[in-house]
Sequence to fold (288 residues):
Amino acid sequence: MPPRQFDGRRVRDVRRGLNLSQKDLGAMVGVGGPAVAKWENGEEFPKGEKLPAIAAALGRPLDALFPHDGPPDLQLLRCDAGLTRAQAAAIIDASLNPLSFAESGRRRLSDGYVKPLAKAYGVSEEELLAAQDRSFGLGHDGQTSVPRTIAEKINLLLEHGYVDQEAPSDEEIARAVNEHAGGTATVTADDIIALRTGATSEVSDVVRAGLAYALQVDAALFQDDAEVSTEAREFLESLRFLSSIHRGQILGLAARGNSTGLSAEMMATINEVVGQLKHQLPDVRGGE
Fold:
């Protein structure tokens, strides 16, 4: 999914208003007509670096056609410059790893990469460093960011909450929401896609409760867009941390003096702590 909000229906409407075929638009942005069809039908998302070209081809401002919440992170800066990760890596004469690690909040860019990347992205060095902070989940005050929108909360839970199992599909989430609503809501997979991408932000309390049920978290996490409680913050951050361990990001500590990495006992302790944090939240159903 691109870092900006993508609504295929909006792209389709603008394209048709310009009397462009899907093949025409595809040719203007370097893909085939079938790819455009999948974007418009919500089957696939274009890569983030394609969005500037799509907006230009349709004669619309990038921010108007594909909005995003809050200041940019490193990935958004690169994509808004229309650069693939490989193209940006070539600019700094490096492998993909430095950019991949920085964009995913795993390892900061070397000082020598900051100036050429800022120039390539069309921003100041200060703006690039601020974007890097955001890639590491830090705001201007140095505090870890908390998901506020429905899209941010759903995506965080899907990305970090299913380390040892497959995350539910859009169809499965929709089915669970409807089941929890007991016939008072009719949500489709397309509705869930719209929520995940930020194309839709207005949602009833019934659907909010259903999303919590579907994703097995406390309903309070989906209340409005207000910041979650301290307990919920700890729970969400524990999900990020545990996910990082399972992806091998934190096991890299072995290279800094621990020849065996995190022990099995430490892993068990971390899993236990995460479980405790989860059950500190009222009405949470764990692994039913």
Q: What stands out?
A: The chain has a mean pLDDT of 79. The longest helix spans residues 230-246. The CA atoms of residues 8 and 40 lie 4 Å apart.
